[in-house]
tRNA N(3)-methylcytidine methyltransferase (Malassezia equina), 298 residues
Amino acid sequence: MADHHARPEPALGAPAPSNSTAGCADDVLATNRRVSSPFMVSKTQRDAAKAWDKFYKSHEDRFFKDRHWTDREFEELKADPPELIHGDAPVLLEVGCGVGNTVYPLLEKNPALRVHCCDFSPRAVDLVKKHPDYTTDRVHAFVYDLVQDRHHDEMAPALAECPSWPPVSTLSLIFVLSAIPPDEQLPVLRALVQQALPVGATVVFRDYARADLAQLRFHTRKDAQWSEPSLLSDKYDWYRRGDDTMAYFFTRDEVQRLFDAVGGLEGEVEEVIKTRVNRRTGTVMERRFIQARLRRRE
């Protein structure tokens, strides 16, 4: 899948004050509820890979900032992680790597780290390989479609292309599931865990939460009557962006149910909030994310 980064760069924040957008989020989300036609929903799903490839054709590596925060949020990604399976050097599987905004900051901080990274945009993977710090000794970048390729058990053979590397110690899913249709999220997650995550390894997860500022903007920005609306479902918090990529907004309980349904994982799922205040208007703006760290048990 493509690199489904938050827009803008996220960070862990403090709980929002009582006069924040959270207090009126339900009212905002109840407005502007026109839903896209079944044809547009189907087209959006069918053309997801093309939309991200077009995105990277337009922006290349200029749109997203490097993620220098991931090792602060997830101790498994630190240069000296507290525990590794089998005592081997750390190996990260970065799903939805985009142009390497997570990969290369981590490689710089951790000389022992090796990274498998994949994306369903061939153009994004090509940009990863063109990075000045790319080396096949430490980076294995490949094209992989989370929805289509999982049906053929393609992940395990891809990882086996680096036979001298230790097994994956951490699987990162950062702003990835939000760009996958709701009915594909559980099958994709289950396939990744079963095919790529050894016992003792860890999943780190971060994605959009319901009532995030980005979701509220879909409802405060009026769609033209002649155009297809952004909302893709009246059942799910699922939207189409202006560039035809998809965005899903999770509740904590939804993410917990997804991991519970996969089975064999234990850890914490939480909602984190970053609060910003517009000094001129006094408006409190919230970025909301669901974050999880789960270890695969016996």
